[in-house]
C-alpha cells in the first residue's frame, strides 16, 4: 500500500530514489513521483502510472542533480490515479513543504475545511495534501524546527500514516514519522535513507532502525535522531538485514512469481528444518509452552487473503491432531464481530508482510481480551511480529510478486508444526507418531519438487484453457481449502472469473453456472472423500463441464470423465494441500502469461495492505 523512499547524502539522490522506487513498486503502482532539492529550489516530478513513466518524465526534464529527496509509489485510496493525486504533495502557497504518505488520514475533510478558511488552495483530492498544508500552516512564521512542527501536526491527525517530509528551510533534512504503517531508516556512511521496507535500502546499506508508532525521526546525512511523542530523544536499536540482494531479484526468471513458485521446496524446508531435531518437534522460543497449549480452550486463526486460506488448512490439521476447538476468521470480519475471546485462548495471526492493517487490529484486539497471541509472519521485525506475544517466523525469504506462493507454502509448514506441537502438549502424540510426522514434513520439500516437475503439463493445460471466461475449483475438506487458494491465485493475476466451492455445495445453486465447456478443476486427495468427490465430478460433467482432476497417488475413483489427471506423489494426506496447490499456482501463472497480464503487479492490487 504505497512505497516511500528518501535519501540524503553526498551523491546524486535521483538514481538512488529511482532504484528504491523500483524495488518498492510491488507495494502500489498507480502513480509515482519524487521531490528533490535542486539549485533552483524544491523540484517535484510526478506522474500517473508506473515508475517507468516517472523515469521517462524525469528524462524529459533534462539533467539536474540533488543530494536530498523523497519518492513515492502510490496505491490510490483518496482520489483516483492521476498526475494531480500523485505524491509528493506540496504544502503552502509557495510550495515550501513536500510530503509523501502511506496510509489514510481519516479527519482530512475537517482539516481541509479549516485550512481552506485560511486561504489554502488544494490541487488534489487526496488526504495527503492536507498534511502538507497543515505542516506549512503550523510552520510558517514560527521559529521552530520542522520536526517540532511535524510532531504538532501529527497530534491533529486521525488515522494511519508513514510520512516523509522535506522543507525548503533545510535542503539536507528529511523528517519521517509513522503510525500503523511501516517505515525504516537505513543507516549509511555519510548518507541515510528512509523507506517502507528493506528492499529499497539494501543496495546502499544493510543497517537500519525501525521507527515505532508515534515516533518522529530527523534524518540528515551525518546523523539520525528519533523523538517520541513528547519530543524526547529515543535510543533505537540498530538491526542488520540477514538476506542478500539477490533474494529480491528475479535471478533469470521471467517473473518474480515464477521464481517464488520454484523456491517453495526451500521455503518449506527452511521453515520446518530448524524446528525438528532427531524426529522431535522442537521450538520453544516463542512462548508456546506446553502448559499454554494444554490449557488453550480455543485456538483462533486470524488472517486475510491467502494467509486466511493457509489458516483454513491449519484449522483442519490442528483440530485433527490436537483435538482442540479451532476457528479461522477473516481479520476484517473478526475485528468488528465482537468475537468471544477468553484469557486462555490462543490467537494465531498469520501474515506474510506482518503489516496487514486488519490482521494487526485483530491481534491488538485479542491482546486486549487477554489471550496469548502468536504471529506466524514472514517479514522479520514487522509490526505484527513485534507486537505479538510470540512469533514463529516463516523463512520464505523476501516475496516480491503480489500473488503470494512461497510465503503461503511456508505458512502451511508453520501451521503443521503448530498442529503437531498442540497434539504433543495435549498428550495425543506418541513418540512413534511424532517421528512419522517429522519424517513426512521433512520429505515434503522433495515432493513439492516432484510436483514442480509437472510444469510442462500445467503449461499445456494453461494454454488450452486460457481463453475460458470462468473456472470452478471443487474440493471437500482440506481440498476445499486448497481450492479457495487456487481460485484466488487465478483471479488475482489473470482476471479470469473463478470460484471455489465445497464440492457438495455446488448443487445448492451454483451448478446453474456450469455449461458446455466450463472448466472445473477438482481435487481429490482425502481418501475418505474420494467417492463423494467422484459423484460431484459426475454432476458437473453431466452438464458439459471439462474436468481437470488433481488426485492423490492412490486415488482409485473412476477418472474416465476427466480430461486430465495430475497425480500427487505419496504423502500423508493431512499435508496434501502443500502439493495440490503447486500445479494450481503454475496454472494461474501460465494463464496470466497467456493473457499477457502483468503477473507480478496485477491491476488494482498491492502487496502489503496497510489500510483497512
Ligand atoms: O501480508 P499478508 O499475508 O497479511 O497479506 C494478506 C493478503 O493480503 C495476501 O495473502 C493476499 O491475499 C495475496 N495477494 C494473495 O496472493
Distance between the termini: 11 Å
CATH class of the largest domain: Alpha Beta
- Count, helices: 18
SS elements, strand count: 27
Count structural domains. 3
CATH homology superfamily name of the largest domain? Aminohydrolase, N-terminal nucleophile (Ntn) domain
Hetero groups: 5-amino-5-deoxy-1-O-phosphono-D-mannitol
Helix content: 25-40%
Largest sheet: 8 strands, antiparallel
> What's the Cα radius of gyration?
26 Å
Structural class comes to alpha/beta
Estimated share of beta-strand residues: 15-25%
Identify the notable features of this structure and list them briefly.
Glutamine Phosphoribosylpyrophosphate, subunit 1, domain 1; Rossmann fold; single chain; 3 domains; 612 residues; 7-stranded antiparallel beta sheet; 8-stranded antiparallel beta sheet; binds 5-amino-5-deoxy-1-O-phosphono-D-mannitol
Question: Can you tell me about this structure?
Answer:
The protein is an alpha/beta fold and 612 residues long. It has 3 domains: 3-241, Glutamine Phosphoribosylpyrophosphate, subunit 1, domain 1, CATH 3.60.20.10; 248-451, Rossmann fold (3-Layer(aba) Sandwich); 455-594, 3-Layer(aba) Sandwich (Rossmann fold). Helices cover 35% and strands 23% of the residues. The strands form 5 sheets. It has an 8-stranded antiparallel β-sheet, covered by helices on one side. A 7-stranded antiparallel β-sheet has the order 5-6-7-8-12-13-14. A 5-stranded parallel β-sheet has the order 19-18-20-21-22, with helices on both faces. The longest helix is centred in the last third of the chain and has 22 residues, at 431-452. It is globular, with a radius of gyration of 26 Å. The N and C termini lie close together (11 Å). The mean pLDDT is 95. 5-amino-5-deoxy-1-O-phosphono-D-mannitol binds next to α9 and α16. 5-amino-5-deoxy-1-O-phosphono-D-mannitol binds at residues 304-307, 351-353, 356, 359, 402-404, 488, 492, 608-609.
Amino acid at each position: 500500500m504505497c512505497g516511500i523512499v528518501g535519501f540524503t547524502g553526498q551523491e546524486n539522490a535521483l538514481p538512488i530514489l529511482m532504484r528504491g522506487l523500483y524495488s518498492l513498486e510491488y507495494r502500489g503502482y498507480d502513480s509515482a513521483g519524487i521531490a528533490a532539492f535542486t539549485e533552483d529550489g524544491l523540484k517535484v516530478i510526478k506522474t500517473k502510472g508506473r515508475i517507468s513513466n516517472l523515469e521517462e518524465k524525469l528524462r524529459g526534464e533534462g539533467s539536474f542533480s540533488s543530494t536530498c529527496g523523497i519518492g513515492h509509489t502510490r496505491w490510490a485510496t483518496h482520489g483516483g490515479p492521476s498526475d494531480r493525486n500523485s505524491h509528493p504533495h506540496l504544502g503552502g502557497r509557495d510550495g515550501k513543504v513536500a510530503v509523501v504518505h502511506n496510509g489514510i488520514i481519516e479527519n482530512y475533510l475537517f482539516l481541509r475545511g479549516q485550512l481552506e478558511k485560511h486561504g489554502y488552495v488544494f490541487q488534489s483530492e487526496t488526504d495527503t495534501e492536507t498534511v502538507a498544508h497543515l505542516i506549512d500552516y503550523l510552520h510558517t512564521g514560527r521559529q521552530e524546527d520542522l520536526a517540532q512542527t511535524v510532531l504538532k501536526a501529527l497530534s491533529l491527525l486521525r488515522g494511519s500514516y508513514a510520512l516523509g517530509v522535506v522543507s525548503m528551510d533545510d535542503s539536507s533534512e528529511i523528517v519521517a514519522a509513522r503510525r500503523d504503517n511501516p517505515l525504516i531508516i537505513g543507516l549509511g556512511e555519510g548518507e541515510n535513507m528512509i523507506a517502507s521496507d528493506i528492499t529499497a535500502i539494501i543496495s546502499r546499506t544493510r543497517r537500519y532502525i525501525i521507527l515505532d508508532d508515534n515516533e518522529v525521526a530527523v534524518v540528515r546525512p551525518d546523523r539520525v535522531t528519533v523523538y517520541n511523542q513528547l519530543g524526547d530523544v529515543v535510543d533505537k536499536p540498530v538491526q542488520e538485514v540477514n538476506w542478500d540482494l539477490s533474494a529480491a531479484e528475479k535471478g533469470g526468471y521471467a517473473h518474480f512469481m515464477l521464481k517464488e513458485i520454484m523456491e517453495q521446496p526451500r521455503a518449506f524446508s527452511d521453515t520446518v528444518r530448524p524446528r525438528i531435531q532427531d524426529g522431535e518437534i522442537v521450538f520453544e522460543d516463542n512462548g508456546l509452552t506446553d502448559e499454554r497449549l494444554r490449557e488453550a480452550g480455543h485456538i483462533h486463526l486470524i488472517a486475510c487473503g491467502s494467509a486466511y486460506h493457509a489458516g483454513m488448512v491449519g484449522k483442519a490439521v490442528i483440530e485433527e491432531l490436537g483435538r482442540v476447538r479451532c476457528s479461522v476468521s477473516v481479520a476484517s470480519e473478526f475485528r468488528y464481530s465482537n468475537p468471544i475471546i477468553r484469557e486462555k485462548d490462543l490467537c494465531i495471526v498469520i501474515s506474510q508482510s506482518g503489516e496487514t492493517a486488519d490482521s494487526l487490529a485483530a491481534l491488538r484486539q485479542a491482546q486486549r481480551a487477554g489471550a496469548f497471541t502468536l504471529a506466524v509472519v514472514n517479514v522479520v521485525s514487522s509490526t505484527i511480529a513485534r507486537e505479538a506475544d510470540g512469533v514463529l517466523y516463516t523463512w520464505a525469504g523476501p516475496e516480491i510478486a503480489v500473488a503470494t506462493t512461497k510465503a503461503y507454502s511456508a505458512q502451511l509448514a508453520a501451521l503443521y508444526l503448530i498442529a503437531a506441537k498442540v497434539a504433543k502438549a495435549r498428550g495425543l502424540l506418541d513418540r512413534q507418531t511424532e517421528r512419522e510426522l517429522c519424517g513426512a514434513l521433512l520429505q515434503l520439500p522433495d515432493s513439492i519438487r516432484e510436483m514442480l516437475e509437472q510444469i510442462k503439463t500445467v503449461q499445456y493445460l494453461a494454454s488450452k484453457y486460457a481463453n475460458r471466461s470462468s473456472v470452478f475449483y471443487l474440493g471437500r475438506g482440506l481440498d476445499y481449502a486448497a481450492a479457495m487458494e487456487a481460485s484466488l491465485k487465478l483471479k488475482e493475476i489473470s482476471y479470469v472469473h473463478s470460484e471455489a466451492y465445497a464440492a457438495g455445495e455446488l448443487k445448492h445453486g451454483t451448478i446453474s453456472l456450469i455449461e458446455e465447456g466450463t472448466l472445473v478443476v477438482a481435487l481429490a486427495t482425502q481418501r475418505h472423500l474420494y467417492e463423494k468427490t467422484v459423484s460431484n465430478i459426475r454432476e458437473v460433467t453431466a452438464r458439459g463441464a471439462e474436468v481437470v482432476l488433481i488426485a492423490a497417488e492412490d486415488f482409485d475413483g473412476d477418472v474416465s470423465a476427466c480430461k486430465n489427471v495430475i497425480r500427487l506423489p505419496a504423502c500423508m494426506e493431512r499435508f496434501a494441500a502443500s502439493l495440490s496447490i503447486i500445479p494450481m499456482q503454475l496454472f494461474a501463472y501460465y494463464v496470466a502469461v497467456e493473457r499477457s497480464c502483468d503477473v507480478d503487479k496485477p491491476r488494482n492490487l498491492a502487496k502489503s495492505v496497510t489500510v483497512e
